[in-house]
Amino acid sequence: AQTVTQSQPEMSVQEAETVTLSCTYDTSESDYYLFWYKQPPSRQMILVIRQEAYKQQNATENRFSVNFQKAAKSFSLKISDSQLGDAAMYFCVFTSGTYKYIFGTGTRLKVLA
Amino acid sequence: DAGITQSPRHKVTETGTPVTLRCHQTENHRYMYWYRQDPGHGLRLIHYSYGVKDTDKGEVSDGYSVSRSKTEDFLLTLESATSSQTSVYFCAISEPPRYNEQFFGPGTRLTVL
């Protein structure tokens, strides 16, 4: 069975600093997609970044980047120059491209002014 | 933003009453999903649909039913609400392989007294 593990229930970062959120997954598939979603207090689920497994290059979106290690089945999210608006719950999500999406349990990020 | 709405956004009801939540999309995506979100569990799939009148169960489907009579609408029904169904419910859509990420509605907070 496919699983997604986020081992850090909560993390804190100083404003303007860099923080890395961890995610590991387990699958026997070779083709799949990974995502990070952000859920601020408004509850809205917002897609932060996506990574296709067949792409070796790590995805980046402005201040957000990932470290995708396919052999290690690791997919961490790095947030640079953290801002107060980055405070949220972050979910790591896996799909092999079918209807099934596997969610991690989330990491709550606090940003300290 | 993807055009996904959920109604109602908040509902308080009593144990034993029927409840229907509605999800409406304007994106013409084939797949639609209902999830529940509870602390410590991430998002768990209740039911999903892969086309009009085509639905299937997720991992936590007991006590829930769904219907999809039109591409744009996906209804979730609690036939007889219980306190254990107090949760936040999210609708999501996807259109693999063109859009492998899911787009989420704003969520519905349901309280069963």
Q: How does the major sheet of chain B shape up?
A: 7 strands, mixed
Mean pLDDT of chain B: 94
Terminal-residue CA separation of chain B: 34 Å
Compute the separation of the termini of chain A in Å: 41 Å
The biggest beta sheet of chain A, please? 6 strands, mixed
How many individual helices of chain B?
Answer: 0
Question: Approximately how much helix is present in the residues of chain B?
Answer: under 10%
Structural class of chain A: mainly beta
Q: Please tally the helical runs of chain A, counting DSSP H or I stretches of 4 or more residues.
A: 0
Principal-axes geometry of chain B comes out as globular
Task: Describe the protein's architecture and organization.
The complex is a heterodimer of chains A (113) and B (113). With 113 residues, chain A is mainly β. Chain A is built from no helices and twelve strands. Helix content of chain A is 0%, strand content 52%. In chain A, the strands form three sheets. In chain A, strands 2, 5, 6, 10, 11 and 12 form a six-stranded mixed beta sheet that branches. In chain A, strand 10 and strand 11 form a beta hairpin. By secondary structure, chain B is mainly beta. Chain B is built from no helices and eleven strands. In chain B, the strands form two sheets. In chain B, strands 2, 4, 5, 6, 9, 10 and 11 form a seven-stranded mixed beta sheet that branches. Chain B has a four-stranded antiparallel beta sheet with strand order 1-3-8-7, with no helix packed on it. Chain B is globular, with a radius of gyration of 13 Å. The mean pLDDT of chain B is 94. Classes of the chains: A mainly beta (113), B mainly beta (113).
